[in-house]
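Just wondering, does anyone understand these tokens?
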Amino acid sequence: MPDAGRAPASNEPDVGDVVVTVADVLAAQARLRRYLPPTPLHHAERFGVMLKLENLQRTGSYKVRGALNALLAARERGDRRPVIAASAGNHAQGLAWAAYRLGVQAITVMPHGAPETKIAGVAHWGATVRQHGDSYDEAFAFAKELAEQNGYRFLSAFDDPDVIAGQGTVGIEIAPYSPDVVIVPIGGGGLASGVALALKSQGVRVVGAQVEGVDSMIRAMKGDTAPKDPVASLADGVRVKVPGFITRRLCTQLLDDVVTVREAELRETLVRLALEENLIAEGAGALALAAGRRVAGKRKCAVVSGGNIDATVLAQLLSDVRPRPPRKPRRRNAEGEPSLAKGRAPRAATTLSPAKTGARRFEAPILETEVHEEPIW
């Protein structure tokens, strides 16, 4: 195991025998295609990146993939227990929608301060909502306690093989577009693990993205497993104190890199996404795109993981943040070569004076110079 040199912590479960493979991701794809149509890819020309629009997914986030796959896989195994989960919002909404579609009882524990739009989304689909604690980790501990007391099935938001496999279907939908690098946000690591499982065999680089001060996965991959409270961030969906244990192992094995971005970069990217691409994303949803400028690649794809942002937060951002103007596209002539300085077009031929040639004076034709933006792949 990649983290074998790390001193084991007494509170870490033994997940050495838990295996998640590409076959599990393909099985999840077969289960989900009946319920979830593929989300589109959008070419964000001003960013030079393809965007996988999971903000247009059912319930507004990729999380429904893992929750639905877990419930379908449990039904195949004959497990029909009520399901309980802890979530800052998106996993809870995904579980509520999946449980509604399959007729399963679902309970969600959400921390105080979770976005109102996410709480309303959970209640809309008929799941029971319990609010407890001020962070995801406090809600997690309370949900685990309720599961043990009542015999519920506890469904982790990321550290579950069925959930990881379900999130990996995002990667399967990206694969036909042949990117050379895919950037994914990391909270607990479920999305990054699943996408890496789906794409690494295709030779695609997979890079994770975290926010400064909300970087538990990076620290865990380096051997620092001490719990540390994440700082306040616009990316509330990735504010996890302790990442998954299965996902930590997979991320260490499969990810090519993990980069961190500043909070100011994240805020600016979210506003630019709304103003320039007409796409609404939550903080965690804009994280991969914010990290894209730090990742080299000709055919980059960033996963916009969710779009469930409070209207008041979005309005405040649009009022406060003034993004820098985007870089202008380079000018190219008809042959694809950079044009002359200041946009002057080359003449077709040099003309001699009529007095020297005895010929009638004529004007040489001027070639029209076309303006091409960066190539679209």
Remarks:
- The longest helix spans residues 136-150.
- The longest strand covers residues 205-211.
- Strands lie at 41-44, 49-53, 83-86, 106-110, 128-131, 153-154, 181-185, 205-211, 257-261, 300-304.
